[in-house]
Write a structure and sequence with these properties.
The protein is α/β, with parallel strands linked by helices. It contains nine helices and seven strands; from the N terminus they run αααβαβαββαβαααββ. It has helices at residues 6-20, 25-30, 33-39, 62-70, 83-93, 132-145, 167-177, 182-185, 190-197, and strands at 52-56, 75-80, 102-105, 118-124, 146-157, 200-207, 210-216.
Length: 224
């Protein structure tokens, strides 16, 4: 991104992301809403105010804002490594304390939640920022904290296999925006990683320059 003082850069972060994705960043984020909402149908017998959804690497809270609009009664949670981003997310929701998600500073490789805790998890624009081994650890943590039958949805950049004609653009992205793990990301098999962790029914979708993975944690016998 631009080389600015951290406080100024934070104020411009969302604008920078929108510029980077030609004004489509929010529309890309919103595409996780359908899979999350549909995935939660498995828990139709659970009262809406007892549904728990986590946004991983929640940043300034924009994805959480869209999740709140879609799931007005659910308990929302956000995790991010950056306390500055979490403060910004709190500001975003501060006008209506009833909508305030539970925000926690934590590493996605070691989530501070018990096993089988969330009905749904979303992750937007995180995985291309991680080294390969960390991607696997994050997926395994998401599997651990997802309830049986729950849904995990990832949104990130398209990959080389999806659009080989954009290889030059992907190479330029790595160089211009100093993304050290993007090269391994664009050839990484996240379906394989999700299945290795235990997820099943993994679907992938592509829209514009984004890609989505929708995965399920298997139900236990008692859930059937």
């Amino acid at each position: 991104m631009l080389y600015l003082k951290s406080s100024t850069k934070l104020l411009l972060y969302d604008l920078q992301v929108e510029i980077l994705f030609y004004g489509a960043a929010d529309s890309m984020r919103r595409r996780i809403l359908g899979p999350i909402n549909q995935g939660l149908n498995v828990f139709a017998s659970v009262p809406p105010d007892q549904i728990k959804v986590l946004d991983l690497a929640c940043g300034t809270g924009r994805t959480l804002k869209f999740l709140r609009a879609t799931l007005p009664k659910a308990s929302l949670f956000g995790v991010d490594l950056s306390p500055a981003y979490l403060r910004k997310a709190n500001q975003l929701f501060s006008k209506n304390p009833e909508e305030l998600p539970q925000l926690v500073q934590a590493n996605a490789e070691k989530l501070p939640y018990p096993d089988n805790y969330f009905h749904g998890i979303s992750s937007v624009f995180l995985f291309h920022e991680l080294p390969p081994a960390a991607r696997q650890r994050v997926i395994e943590e998401c599997f651990r904290v997802t309830k049986p039958g729950g849904v995990f949805t990832i949104c990130d950049s398209m990959q080389l296999l999806d659009s080989p004609e954009f290889e030059v653009s992907m190479e330029n992205f790595m160089a211009i925006y100093h993304e050290p793990y993007y090269r391994s990301y664009i050839t990484d098999n996240l379906v394989e990683r999700l299945e290795k962790a235990g997820f099943e029914q993994v679907e992938t979708k592509n829209h514009f320059v984004s890609k989505y993975w929708i995965a399920r944690k298997p139900k236990t016998r008692s859930d059937c």
